[in-house]
Design a protein that fits this description.
291 residues; mainly beta; 15-stranded antiparallel sheet; 19 strands; globular
Length: 291
């Protein structure tokens, strides 16, 4: 058992390559850590049990650590708690399943309802140098994180199916990922039709490569795209996103130095530009040093 602010990523399924390790703007911010399966991180208590070889059972119980009572964050035991299980099949891969309990959210009528998110994934490692991870998350009810009676807009909790693959060819590593948001709401139609159930299919994908040269020099290229439903939950103009970049790093005894270029469409950089269709770019610089 651990108590505190825990960040050990026991169960997480990642798609963390390329631009994720540099400047995370545009669609990059939604395609990285926890892309195929969530982690068991929690602020509170984490219980990890390994009853047999290959099996891990993980429970996360949120606690209030800001006062002396250490009470549950929610007055109802189980809200915000997480329950995960993973089982590793030798020379094949790892099966993952879990439940994320959530605070009450709103149905289409604006009434508060209970719900949870069911997670499942499989990581294939049976083929040498190939890694494949496919996962899904499905809410147990159609819910919105903002009341349908609110004028501030809507945010829907939707089913997702995501996949990531990497393949190593000597010094070259190839990456690809696909993400979906099923029945994601289309806020343009929601507003124009006054119908909160107007929705669409969100799709995103990315491809990239890393290459390790001699003398601890590395380089990467990365390209990603998300349609407007995936990126901004709307079919309004200038709402999709394309983000791309390339960079180079040089390793030395205790760290890494690197420089890259990153560009993104439709005003999706760190700072808001004048027009919705403006192109944003950055030159991120990386410096890491280990003591």
């Amino acid at each position: 058992m651990k108590i505190g602010q825990i960040d050990d990523n026991v169960t997480r399924g990642d798609a963390a390559w390329g631009l994720w390790n540099w400047a995370r703007f545009g669609v990059v911010s939604s395609m990285g850590e926890g892309f195929t399966f969530p982690d068991g991180d929690v602020t509170g208590a984490q219980i990890l049990v390994t009853p047999i070889e290959g099996l891990k059972l993980l429970v996360g119980l949120p606690l209030s650590l800001t006062d002396t009572s250490n009470t549950m964050v929610s007055t109802e035991l189980g809200h915000k708690a997480t329950y995960f299980a993973t089982y590793t099949l030798k020379d094949i891969g790892t099966v993952k399943a879990g439940v994320q309990c959530a605070d009450k959210a709103y149905n289409k009528d604006g009434d508060k309802v209970d719900y949870a998110v069911i997670d499942a994934a499989f990581d294939l490692t049976a083929v040498k140098n190939l890694y494949v991870s496919v996962g899904t998350s499905i809410p147990t009810a159609t819910v919105y994180t903002v009341s349908s009676t609110s004028a501030s807009g809507y945010a829907k909790v939707v089913p997702q199916v995501n996949g990531y693959v990497s393949y190593v060819l000597d010094a070259l590593t190839l990456h690809a990922a696909v993400g979906t948001k099923i029945n994601q709401m289309d806020n343009k139609e929601v507003i124009s039709e006054s119908d909160i159930e107007k929705s669409g299919f969100g799709l995103a994908f990315g491809i990239g490569a890393d290459y390790a040269f001699d003398n601890n020099v590395g380089a990467f290229v990365d390209f990603r795209y998300a349609n407007s439903i995936y990126e901004n939950a709307t079919t309004a103009d200038n709402s999709d996103n394309m983000t791309f970049g390339a960079g180079i790093t040089k390793g030395y005894s205790n760290g890494v130095f690197g420089i890259a270029f990153e560009g993104t469409t439709n005003n999706s950089g760190y700072y808001s530009l004048k027009n919705a269709d403006d192109f944003a770019w950055a030159i991120p610089i990386k410096f890491e040093y280990s003591f």
